[in-house]
Design brief:
The chain is an all-alpha fold. The protein is built from 8 helices and no strands. Helix content is about 70%, strand content about 0%.
Length: about 140
Amino acid sequence: VWFAASLRNRHLKKDLLPRARDLAALPGDIRSHIRLKFHHTIRYSPLQKLAYAGVLFVLFPLIILTGLCMSPGMNAVLPWLPELFGGRQTARTIHFIVMLLLVAFFAVHIAMILLAGPLNELRSIITGRYRIDPVTKGKRS
């Protein structure tokens, strides 16, 4: 439902899919995050866009498909699916690695919320109001 709604209201294209300028700004964004300097803006940062796109378009589909590969009942319906991943054991290994990546994403996500200012983050979740940094001259968010 979320995916269909995000396609309909263009949230995926407008807010989540990385563009060329996001890739150009990625090294600076990584440096800012390493220094724990977070910019509170309305738009997602290039690093956020890449992380969310990776989870939504790579990890979630992979964990679903590899999970189906491990189900013996799916052999009757999709006998070619385990072979697509190199067999049931390889699918199981990929499934486990993807699970670890999703847990790591969740842990980093929670850590970033705490480092960026949990009160502001909680307020935005509950009320929709979010404190943003003032736009500096010559810089756009």
